[in-house]
Each structure stands twice: as C-alpha cells, then as structure tokens.
C-alpha cells in the first residue's frame, strides 16, 4: 500500500492521493444560517479518517454533516471523528390525490386567499419569509427547519424565487407560504411550509398544502416528498393525517 497524501487543493476542497490517484475527497459548504457542513467521499475507512483529521485541523467549530440513518458505516466514520447526533429528520412521501389525502373539501379560512405557485410578488414574499425566519430563530432556531435556500458560490443566499412559492394572503398581507422544489414533473418536494405566528391554528397551513398537492395531482403528479424534524409534532401530524408515509430518515451530526 502506498502512502496516502492529504492536500487542501482549494478553500473548500481536500484530496487524498495514493500512488498518483485521488482516492478520497472532502468538501465543505456554508449554509445561509452561517453553519459549515462537511462531506467526505473515500474509497475506504482509513482514507476517510485521514481526510477527516486534516479537515478538522483546518476548520473552526462547530461543524456539521448529514447522513442517511440506514448508512451505519458512514455514520460510524463520522462518530470516530467525534461527531454526535444533533437531530433526526423523517422523509415522507405524500400522496397528491385529494380522494386519498382527504383535502379535496378543504377551503381557505375566511378572509384568506391563496396565490398559486409562481404568482407571488417578490417584495411581500421576502417580507413574510424574513418575518417567519425571525420568529423561528427566536424559538427553536432556524437551523431546525429543513429548508433549502439556493446560495451563491460565496455562500450568501440568492433572492427568493417566486416561481417556487405559493402564499396565503389576508388583508393584502402575506401570512403563510409553501415552497415546491425539485423536479416538479417527477418528484416534487415540499421544502418549507410555514405560517406567521399570529396567524397559526386557523387552518392556513392545511389549506396551502391542499392547494399545492391538488395542483400537482391535476398536473399528473402522484406523489411529493417532504422532510420533517422529528421534534415538529404538528408537521408530522399534518402529513400523517393525509396519508403520508415515512420512507427514510437522516441524521444531522455535529462536532462542537
């Protein structure tokens, strides 16, 4: 066996080289919430361990990574590096057929209208997004949300894309939103479903979900996916109440 050489080849990239071959890669990505996530792809555990050691020396803590919970070998590799479980997310598959979900008869609450995906205006969309984010930050923390906000190469968030959002409106004010991402024609993803705190428990989230799932069903899409933090009992109850199935789980690990 030849010597394994670890080199930091760019600001966010490391290579493990053996006999002039790249046998492992390590990368970092910076989330909009400021956290740094690691990923390592290695041919065998010894290479993984060498890459992890080199990366952890170079990077400030805390550091994070995400693994599929059934992948016990990869989870074990990160645990050897000192990472521990921070939270679990359940992956759901949601039916779209209102005859299955029971959402066909769901109407928007009185005084609330729904703006379909792609028709929201950017400024009020940003306003409600920022308001919801501040409310979540003040309680459980925004990092607890399974959100995917596209970022620039430097890690800063791009402007919100109205083509991916439907919103709930009350008195000309956006009070809730739902984001639909992924390959919508094949397996769309419900990436974020949230309502402003002063408008909760009125059925707005349920009506938004009914709207987007009904629209997907009308376009010929049979299922969508979603991820829910296991501590979010309200979201799990909402999804499971419409026939959603748990199909997988992932773990967010942290090294402090």
Report on the architecture of this protein.
This protein is of the alpha+beta class and 256 residues long. The protein folds into two domains: 4-89, Gcn5-related N-acetyltransferase (GNAT) (Aminopeptidase, 3-Layer(aba) Sandwich), CATH 3.40.630; 90-249, 3-Layer(aba) Sandwich (Aminopeptidase), CATH 3.40.630.30. The chain contains six helices and twelve strands. The chain has helices at 45-58, 72-80, 98-101, 122-137, 204-218, 233-240; strands at residues 4-10, 13-18, 21-30, 36-42, 63-68, 84-95, 112-115, 165-170, 173-183, 187-195, 223-229, 245-255. It has an eight-stranded mixed beta sheet with strand order 5-12-6-11-10-9-8-7, with helices on both faces. It has a four-stranded antiparallel beta sheet with strand order 1-2-3-4, with helices on one face. It holds the Pfam family Acetyltransf_10.
């Amino acid at each position: 066996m030849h010597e394994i050489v670890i080199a930091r080849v760019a600001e966010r990239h490391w290579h493990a080289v053996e006999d002039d071959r790249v046998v492992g890669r390590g990368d970092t990505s910076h989330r909009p919430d400021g956290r740094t996530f690691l990923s390592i792809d290695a041919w065998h555990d010894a290479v993984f361990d060498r890459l992890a050691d080199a990366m952890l020396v170079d990077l400030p803590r805390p550091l994070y990574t995400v693994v599929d919970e059934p992948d016990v070998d990869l989870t074990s590799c990160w645990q050897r590096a000192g990472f521990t479980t921070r939270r679990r997310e359940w992956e759901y598959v949601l039916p779209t057929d209102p005859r299955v979900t029971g959402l066909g008869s769901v109407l928007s609450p009185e005084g609330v209208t729904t703006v379909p995906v792609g028709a929201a205006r950017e400024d009020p969309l940003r306003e409600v997004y920022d308001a919801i984010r501040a409310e979540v930050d003040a309680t459980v923390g925004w990092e607890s949300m399974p959100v995917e906000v596209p970022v620039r190469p430097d890690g800063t968030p791009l402007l919100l894309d109205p083509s991916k959002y439907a919103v709930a409106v009350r008195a000309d004010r956006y009070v809730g939103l739902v984001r639909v991402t992924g390959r919508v024609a094949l397996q769309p993803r419900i990436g974020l479903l949230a309502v402003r705190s002063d408008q909760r428990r009125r059925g707005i989230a349920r009506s938004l979900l009914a709207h987007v799932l009904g629209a997907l069903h009308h376009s010929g899409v049979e299922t969508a996916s979603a991820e829910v933090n296991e501590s979010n009992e309200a979201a799990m109850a909402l999804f499971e109440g419409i026939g959603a199935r748990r199909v997988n789980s992932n773990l967010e690990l942290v090294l402090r």
